[in-house]
Every structure is written in structure tokens, then in C-alpha cells.
Amino acid sequence: MRVRFLPALTADRRHLYSNRPHGQPVFAGSFIRKREIILDQELERQPRELARILVHELFHFAWVRLGNPARRSYEAIVRREWKQRARGELGWSAESRKRVLRDRPLPAPGFPAWRDYLCESFCDTGAWLYSGVRRHPEYTLAARHRDRRAEWFHSQFRGREIPI
């Protein structure tokens, strides 16, 4: 896997740019087929944030290797949170996608925005658990939901490597 740093990252319509005046500022992007992660150079001066964001990006690779049964199992946990009207998330990536879905009834499993949210939720949860960053302003999901997700991750990956 290749990891590179570039200055002033922005993203627009699933494209990542460096030093370009359009798109939203982002800290990173992953390219699964190329097996590449690009991180914003600013993170080199922020080791805790670098750890959190790099682990989040690595979990994108784990998500695609997880397999449908495990993804559906994770989705069941998130659907339960949704039915319980859980507020907050474990990172901006999931939180921003959750806001887009907020005023909808429980989305259908194949709905693209729902799939994006599930993936980002999984990656943010992985970063929360494995980056070593235990406290962060973006960790706003209630403890009972965090605990349920942590239990799922530990049972899913207990005693084996996380495939990326």
C-alpha cells in the first residue's frame, strides 16, 4: 500500500485535488483499486490527528474485504441506533452523511447515501477504537452505542488480523 502527503487537499464529486481552488477541504482520500492513501501535508504537524485519519482511511480497505455477511451484521447495529434516534457519531465523515439522511425514515439497504453512511460509520468507529486517540470533539455518539459498536468490532476481529 502506498501513502503520500500532498498540500491543501480538496474533494469534489469523488475527485481529490491538491492546491486547487475548488471542492471542500479534506484531510485525506483513499483509492482502493490503486491501494493508495493520500493525506494532507498539514497532518504531518498533528500526530494525533494523523493517527486518527490514517486509521480511518485504512478501514476503507477493511470495509471492502469485510464480506457481505459481516457488513450486514454491522448494518444491523447501525439500523438499531437509527430506530433509537441515536444522535452523534464518531467522526465528521459519518456525521456529515448522517445529517443528509436525518429527515428520512429508515433508508433502504441499497440506498447509495445509506451505504456511504455505513462505510464512513464503520471507518470512523475503527479509527476511534484503534488509532489510540481516545478523546476528540468529533466523538459525539452516546456511550451505549459506542459500546455496542466496540463489542461488534472485537467479536468480528478477535484473535485475527484486520484484512486491508
Describe the structure.
With 164 residues, this protein is α+β, with helices and mostly antiparallel strands. Helices cover 48% and strands 15% of the residues. It is built from five helices and six strands. The protein has helices at residues 47-65, 68-83, 92-101, 112-130, 143-157, and strands at 2-6, 9-12, 15-18, 24-25, 28-31, 36-40. Helix 1 (47-65) crosses helix 4 and helix 2 (68-83) runs antiparallel to helix 5 (143-157). The longest helix is centred in the middle third of the chain and has 19 residues, at 47-65. The chain is globular, with a radius of gyration of 16 Å. The model has no long low-confidence stretch (mean pLDDT 95).
Topology diagram in text:
Blueprint: E1 2-6, E2 9-12, E3 15-18, E4 24-25, E5 28-31, E6 36-40, H1 47-65, H2 68-83, H3 92-101, H4 112-130, H5 143-157
Parallel strand pairs: 1-6
Antiparallel strand pairs: 2-3, 2-4, 5-6
Helix pairs in contact: 1-4, 2-5, 3-4
